[in-house]
Amino acid sequence: MRVLIVEDERVLADTIAEGLREEAMAVDVVYDGDDALERASYNEYDVVVLDRDLPTVHGDDVCRELVARRHAGRILMLTASGDVDDRVDGLSLGADDYLPKPFVFSELVARVRALSRRSGAPVPPVLERRGIRLDPYRRRVARDGRELRLTKKEFAVLEELLRAEGGVVSAERLLERAWDENIDPFSNIVRVTMATLRRKLGEPPVIETVTGAGYRLEAL
């Protein structure tokens, strides 16, 4: 899952980003409305966490523009005001959810994950295939009842493979969805992560390499 944080309070923005990365999400951060619109023009995001009171371009205008562009990602609007009228105004702009500050971080995570499930084709809250059961909310994964200890990136890669429902996922797609824009596109990190993930999943092997295309979870 990839998330864009748009928040001009830099300490808050960076804290949110670090927390979401701990939840195995790929996160980009910008601090004003102009940069938000630029990033959203060339990156695909499942969720945009958007502060309402932004410099250069107001959060309301960013929201309007993203909706007008038919941006596929869902918008979670943040504001210092918890007033009902403000929440109604934010939702009327096209935001999908609204969270007043201060907020409990666990609620933010739950809302981001709930929105991400609605950003594309509907997916179940718990993903299952080939005896693998992955729960994104509880950050737990097991195979045939055996609990697995995965790193954040291994977890994110496996989640993308499960979401593909047997479809091929390219290395470029995995870089985009499990890491962020600071990763070197020529890195071999996907291949290395895939090797350790295969080892942890154990026998029989379930991740297939499709030459020249990417990876997929094999069907039964």
TrEMBL record:
Q: Which GO terms describe its biological process?
A: regulation of DNA-templated transcription
Fetch the SMART domains from UniProt: REC (SM00448), Trans_reg_C (SM00862)
Q: Which InterPro entries does UniProt cross-reference here? A: CheY-like_superfamily, OmpR/PhoB-type_DNA-bd, Sig_transdc_resp-reg_receiver, WalR-like, WH-like_DNA-bd_sf
Q: Where is the OmpR/PhoB-type domain positioned along the sequence? A: 124-219
Q: Name one GO molecular function term.
A: transcription cis-regulatory region binding
- Any idea which residues the entry calls the DNA-binding region? 124-219
- What's the protein name? Response regulator transcription factor
Protein species of origin: Actinomadura rubrisoli
